[in-house]
Amino acid sequence: MTANLIDGKKIAKEIELELQSKVSQMATPPTLSVVQVGDDPASTSYIRAKANAAERIGINLTHHHLSSKTSKKELENLVNKLNKTEDGIIVQLPLPYGFESVLDLIEPENDVDGFHPINLGKIVQETSGMKPCTPAGIIELLSRTGNNPSGKNVVVVGRSTIVGKPISLLLLQKGIDATVTVCHSRTSDIQKFCKEADILIVAVGYPNTVTKEMVKPGAVVIDVGVNRTDEGLVGDTSFDVRDVAGALTPVPGGVGPMTVVMLMSNVVEAASKK
Ligand code: NAP
Does ligand 1 come within 6 angstroms of the Cβ of 157? Predict the structure, then answer.
């Protein structure tokens, strides 16, 4: 079997066109402020991708690029100020040590990354709130490729606050109805769990964590990993997973473009609620 590659770029483009159309009917364009502290090169390239997407959709994005010497107080003041004027605010990670609590100052309705404790809590309660972009993008990918998780065994490898935990909780929600197993670095016999997955979601951060032997023939594999190696960007699954999986998200071009477009979707939603 050779897995069908799930074209995240194409699906993200479809959603982008839907957002463009919504924005064209708004009286004023949605506004998004992206705050960066320091010069992390990966952050700079992620912000560039967000700025390009925002421009195509018609969102007014402002990049606040602060020096690495910025104090926590200055960052807090900026976030408090932006809360009063913007539809969406992102404080780009990574932040200097001890600064992460600033994220909680973003008003939940402006928190387009979906990282605020109130928005994460709303996933548990199954009430409407801003959903974190990568998990929301995975749900959208599954839905738009006809891979309905209802009643399926879904195994999530990774339990981070931005990917593993929220995707597990979204999949559990009524209406999505997956049976979810979450694995992590302390799981014993991880292969046994992975092998039972109809849908396997891998968000670990190390190449080759999931190999061909760990995948059930025909399973849908969502590879969230982004690892910079000498061979370029690779995911968390090994290349030979293509031989057994029924469908697989490539890296790059799978989950990554979905994360960016779901962020834009959150901005448009935030603006339409104001
Ligand atoms: P993270 O915060 O470092 O969490 C990694 C998780 O993987 C942890 O729960 C860890 O377990 C688990 N883990 C580590 N080694 C493992 C192993 N050998 N077997 C099983 N579980 C293991 O990472 P993250 O933020 O979730 O990101 C994961 C990957 O996704 C990274 O490559 C990141 O760059 C990528 N990512 C991509 C996008 C996108 O848009 N494409 C968005 C976000 C993240 P413990 O909890 O036990 O330590």
Answer: yes
